[in-house]
Amino acid sequence: MEFKVPKHNTPAATLIKNYQNRKSGKVTVSRREIQQRFNGMEWRHQKKILLAFINAGGADREWASRKMFAFWDNSFIPVVKSFWEKYHEMPLSWLILRYFPKDYLKQNLDSLSQGRNYYYLCQRLIDEEDFYLDKNRLYESDIIELFKISKKKVTDEEIADVFFSMIRKICRGEYKSAYMYDWDNDYSSRYGWSILVNIKVRYILSEIEFSLCRKGLADAIHMWNRKIAKEVKESNEYRIIRQMEIQGQNMQPEYLDLTKKYSLKHLGLYDTDKENEPISLLNSRISVPKLDLVSQYRILNNMKIENPAIEKLVNSFNLELLEQVPF
């Protein structure tokens, strides 16, 4: 039996030479071996490779751009700048946002702030006096992160506005799959049926209390939440939903709609007194939309299926089923 002799690594200098020589017939195999061995090469070879790849075609330039993010050197600035201004490719913009001087970022705000790049632009420029933070272009969690890294003073009112802006969007359905709910733990029993069953809300509240060190504000939010949970449990809607749950139906969507309704009802103006006491609710400033909680059709249909006597009773009245329960 003959054993195959293992292949030895080609010298890095030879690989680079073969890759750059389009007539060598070894461009593809050299590219593959360079990419496989790149992380373990010496810096002098890595630098030559990155410059060779970024001056090549689109796919190789993208590979080099992504590698440069972790293997950066300021000597790359001229070539990255040249290709960015020519192609405006996303991986090149990441290098600029991370490593270029702030003056260059300010000169190219529009082209560098597209999509998600705006958040990373804000990370670099948040403490610049002439930079305007457009909060409408960011998730609330992003704004909280920027508050954490900023050297500027952030007031309780600014943080509260961000938090309750998120609550408003969740309750209005602007955030859906990105904001998950966690019913099966101690939070529902600890906070009642409230918006704090939302995982993202709890995370932001934790950041406010511990990362931003605003325990007074966090305590005020918890008081606001307890008031909502109390009203939810005392409402007629809750009693109806509870009755349906006792019959074995999954009523979590209805519970969630109910918490949204009362959270919206209690979104209002907030203020602090002169001694920096916790922020308190002053008055409601938004209208409460009519909420689709439980349709009559769903209630009656499920009851008829489970109990023929109820079906006979309902049919005897010739009831006209409405689309929604008139709460």
Give the SSE layout.
Blueprint: H1 12-20, H2 27-37, H3 43-54, H4 58-70, H5 77-87, H6 90-99, H7 102-107, H8 109-112, H9 117-125, H10 140-149, H11 156-171, H12 186-191, H13 199-211, H14 215-234, H15 236-246, H16 252-265, E1 268-271, E2 280-284, H17 296-306, H18 308-316
Antiparallel strand pairs: 1-2
Q: Can you describe this structure?
A:
The chain has 327 residues and is an all-alpha fold. Helix content is 60%, strand content 3%. It contains 18 helices and 2 strands. The chain has helices spanning 12-20, 27-37, 43-54, 58-70, 77-87, 90-99, 102-107, 109-112, 117-125, 140-149, 156-171, 186-191, 199-211, 215-234, 236-246, 252-265, 296-306, 308-316, and strands spanning 268-271, 280-284. A two-stranded antiparallel sheet has the order 1-2. Helix 1 packs across helix 2 (27-37) and helix 10 (140-149) packs antiparallel against helix 11 (156-171).
Low-confidence stretches: 269-295, 321-327
Helix content: 55-70%
Strand proportion: under 5%
Biggest sheet descriptor: 2 strands, antiparallel
* Helix and strand sequence: HHHHHHHHHHHHHHHHEEHH
Gross morphology: elongated
Computed Rg: 30 Å
- Average per-residue pLDDT, rounded, comes to 81
Got a strand count? 2
Quick rundown:
Helices cover 60% and strands 3% of the residues.
Identify the notable features of this structure and list them briefly.
mainly alpha; two-stranded antiparallel sheet; 18 helices; 2 strands; disordered C terminus
